[in-house]
Structures are given as C-alpha cells and as structure tokens.
Design a protein that fits this description.
The chain contains eight helices and twelve strands. The chain has 275 residues and is α/β, with parallel strands linked by helices. It folds into two domains: 4-91, Hypothetical PUA domain-like, domain 1 (Ribosomal Protein L25, Chain P); 99-265, SPOUT methyltransferase, trefoil knot domain (Alpha/beta knot), CATH 3.40.1280.10. It starts with a helix and ends with a helix. Helix content is 37%, strand content 23%.
Length: 275
C-alpha cells in the first residue's frame, strides 16, 4: 500500500515531467519575424489544431528554413482561425560546417525514404536523386512529381525531428551523368564494393564533399569510370556488402567524422576553449 510520501513523490515527478516537456517543433513555410503576429492560413490551422492537437495559448518552436528558431504562442480566435504570436527568435547552430552533397541512386520506396531521412539527420546539404544503369524503379512523369513532394515532406519532417533550421535542397530526379557533369565539390567519392587502397584525400582538409551511393544493384563499371573522369575517387565501405540505405548512413557518418561536426579533434578543441 502506497504511503502519503509515495503519492507526493509521484505528484512531484509528474510536475517535473511537465516542466521539462519539450516544446513541439514544426516547420511553417511563411515569413516569420520577432514581435509580430502571423495569421494562420487554413492549411496551417488544420495541421496545428487538428493533426498535432495543439491548443490555445500553447507555446511552440517554429522554423521556416532561414536558419532561425522562432519561439511562438498560439492564439486561437475561433474554431476555424488562429494567429501565431512570434515572441523570440534565436539563431540555430545545428548545421554542420561541412557542405555535403548526396547523389542517391533511385531505390525502392522504403529504402529511398530511409536514405533521404537519415541523410537529413546526418546534416546533408543537398540531395540529388538519380537514375542509374541498374535502377529497378521506373517513374512516369506524374509519379515523379508525387515522389518529389513525398521526399520533400520526409526532408521537412527530418528537420523537425533533428532540430535543424535549414532545409536541405532536394533536386529533381535526373540521370546520373547529368549531375556528375555539373557538380562542384572539393572531394568526390563514389562508394564501391571493390577492395581498393585508401585514397590520399582522407588526410586533406575539405569544406565540401560529394558522395555517390548506388541503388540496390550498385553502379555499373561504366558509371564509375565516368565519375572518375569527373574527379571522383573510388572508396570502399569495408569488406561487407551494405544495403543502399545503410551505405548512405555509413558514408555520411564517416564524412562528418572526418571533416564535419563529428570531428573529434575539432570538438575537443572547442570544448577546451569554452572551459
């Protein structure tokens, strides 16, 4: 049987849980500015009050892709309208200093979705979905437009979850060769299954890195050779064969660890300076 103190502890824990509860964080594609009131369009009202179950006077964090987080309060006027009161804005510092460009071979539904989602969480800057020789997915023009919208929604949701305030650029689906011919990056890596020697670029500093990840069947030898002509240097992700979505996660993690915001030496130096 619980004592009076047990119930008191439960109440205190409940209060503490409510105090530390994280604010909802959502993307709104509207101009935002501190100390302004923003009338919510019907679509935004439905999303906030019907989908997310927000309530009047609720505080939340919004962002629109400009690199800032906006601390707001909802003010419901009636059952069909409300406005967003922008109370404060803060610069969001969660972006990686490294520009990363993902060239992702078109894969089947769940695998492509996972690759895009995790790439955003890992700080990718741009995503190029590409058609390749071994691509098993064929998209008609109408389906392609729907896919682009679907991928864009995944990117937005991943930014909400990972607390990013800059939306990575999603390019239109296009042939691999078209992307490679116009791509600019200091280091360019196509990941392949073949065992090769370790490239010398791992010891060089870089501010931008492009990585090619193939679909389920990988890249053809002709595609890799064409990539090499455009300045790409082959690299392998270990001895085991990875699924396309796993390769995306592994490659971007390695790249962030070497040049981006996972870099141990840089982070240790920053921590020492702070202390």
């Amino acid at each position: 049987m619980r004592s009076h103190y047990d119930y008191l502890i439960i109440q205190l824990l409940t209060i503490l849980k409510n105090l530390i509860k994280k604010l909802k964080r959502i993307y709104l594609n509207y101009p935002l500015k501190r100390e302004t009131n923003v009338p919510l369009p019907d679509e935004a009202f439905h999303y906030l009050f019907r989908v997310l179950r927000c309530h009047d006077k609720e505080k939340l964090i919004t962002f629109n892709g400009d690199g800032y987080d906006y601390y707001c309060e909802l003010q419901q006027e009636n059952k069909k309208s409300a406005q967003l009161i922008v109370c404060e804005q803060q610069k969001n510092n969660n972006e990686s200093p490294l520009k990363t460009i993902l060239i992702q071979g078109l894969s089947k539904n769940e695998r492509m979705d996972t690759a895009i989602q995790k790439a955003v969480e890992l700080g990718v800057s741009e995503i190029y979905p590409v058609r390749t020789d071994f691509c098993a997915v064929k998209l008609a023009t109408e389906r392609q437009a729907k896919k682009q919208q679907h991928w864009q929604a995944i990117i937005t949701s991943a930014c909400e979850q990972s607390e990013r305030a800059v939306i990575p650029t999603l390019h239109d689906l296009q042939p691999l060769s078209a992307v490679l011919q116009n791509l600019s990056a200091e280091i360019k890596i196509p990941y392949q299954e073949k065992p090769i020697s370790v490239p010398s670029f791992w010891s060089k500093p870089a501010q931008s890195v492009a990585v090619m990840i193939g679909p389920e069947g990988g890249f053809s030898e002709q595609e890799v050779e064409f990539a090499e002509q455009q300045g790409f240097v082959r690299q392998q992700l270990g001895r085991r064969i990875l699924r396309t979505e796993t390769a995306t996660i592994a490659a971007l993690t390695l790249i962030q660890n070497q040049w981006g915001d996972y870099h141990f030496k840089d982070n240790r130096a920053k921590d020492n300076q702070a202390n």
